[in-house]
């Protein structure tokens, strides 16, 4: 049986995310939470694999206690088990520590996994670093931004778009893929799924396990906020900048000025090297 792990993150609904322009911070606590759309596509990829062959799906998330909600949602959609990594000591983890904590939990709680699926990047912090860093931490191969996964006996075949062409790649298992937003349209949550997610479980098989920092072997001094090597210096909304200039003179003079002063910008947008001599014929 294929052992699949899907990493899912709970994110605020961005459309509802209030912004404090004075402090430059997002008021996450005021927004409704949801499963990160890329993670949800990763889960859909796992469910579609499970529909084709025997597989067991473990959904794992690191976040505050309320992140348990998305594990119930994942189970209702088709995951067999959920793992919540939560602890105040883990709060404020940057992507490096998030990957390290996820890796440690996977090594400890999910021995013998075959495939890890992550979203390519989240809808809130969207660094796109957790998947590749997690693969590095676990010392397994990884392919990013895939839009289709086909499982073979000991490998997977994946497809992805790169620039203007499509690639088909094969990767040994165990391995990790990140799924992009164009792939795997998420299914609706069926009522039967919700019923199944809340059905009583066997004693040896908790539907959702909750794991803290000490259970993962982090000592009492561990503090993700302080121990994270990345610092957020500032968060700000870039001010829109507009400029109105009136270019005067003959048509040739105006065009010359336009190309001299803005040729680089216009050419950059067109993918061309626009220089003054390109319009010598203009009078
Ligand atoms: C108590 C607590 C509070 C937290 N509060 C916040 C918070 O306020 N804001 C915040 O952004 N983060 C918070 N985190 C989580 C952590 O800091 C972020 O998950 C991490 O920095 C991911 O960055 P990203 O969104 O850029 O990931 P990306 O690299 O863009 O994510 C790509 C993919 O990696 C996987 N992934 C990413 N993060 C997680 C995760 N946490 N669990 C499982 N899979 C994941 C998903 O598949 C995702 O689609 C908290 C964690 C804890 C324990």
Automatic annotation (TrEMBL):
Origin: domain of life: Bacteria
Coiled coil (residue ranges): none
Keyword Transport: yes
Alphabetically ordered keywords of this record: Electron transport, Transport
Annotated SUPFAM superfamilies: Adenine nucleotide alpha hydrolases-like (SSF52402)
This protein's name: EtfB4
Gene name, Swiss-Prot/TrEMBL: etfB4
Domain Electron transfer flavoprotein alpha/beta-subunit N-terminal: 23-220
Gene Ontology molecular function: electron transfer activity
């Amino acid at each position: 049986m294929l052992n699949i792990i899907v990493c899912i993150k709970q994110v605020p609904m961005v459309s509802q995310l209030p912004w404090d322009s004075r402090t430059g911070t997002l008021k996450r606590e005021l927004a409704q939470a949801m499963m990160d759309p890329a993670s949800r596509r990763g889960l859909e990829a796992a469910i579609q694999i499970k529909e084709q062959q025997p597989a067991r799906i473990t959904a794992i998330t690191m976040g505050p206690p309320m992140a348990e909600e998305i594990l119930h949602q994942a189970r209702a959609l088709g995951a067999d088990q959920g793992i919540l990594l939560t602890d105040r000591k883990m709060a404020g983890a940057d992507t490096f520590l998030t990957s390290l904590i996820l890796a440690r939990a996977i090594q400890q709680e999910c021995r013998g996994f075959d495939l890890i699926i992550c979203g390519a990047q989240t809808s809130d912090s969207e660094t796109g670093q957790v998947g590749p860093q997690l693969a590095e931490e676990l010392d397994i191969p990884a392919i990013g931004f895939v839009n289709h996964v086909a499982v073979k006996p000991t490998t997977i075949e994946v497809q992805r778009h790169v620039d203007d062409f499509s690639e088909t790649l094969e990767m040994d298992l165990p391995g990790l893929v990140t799924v992009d937003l164009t792939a795997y349209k998420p299914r609706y949550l069926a009522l039967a799924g919700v019923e199944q997610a809340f059905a009583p479980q066997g004693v040896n098989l908790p539907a959702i396990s909750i794991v803290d920092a000490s259970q993962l072997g982090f000592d009492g001094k561990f503090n993700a906020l302080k121990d994270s090597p990345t610092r957020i210096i500032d968060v700000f909304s870039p001010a829109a900048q507009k400029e109105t200039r009136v270019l005067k003179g003959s048509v040739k003079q105006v065009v010359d000025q336009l190309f001299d002063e803005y040729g680089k910008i216009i050419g950059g947008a067109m993918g061309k090297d626009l220089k003054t001599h390109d319009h010598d014929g203009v009078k």
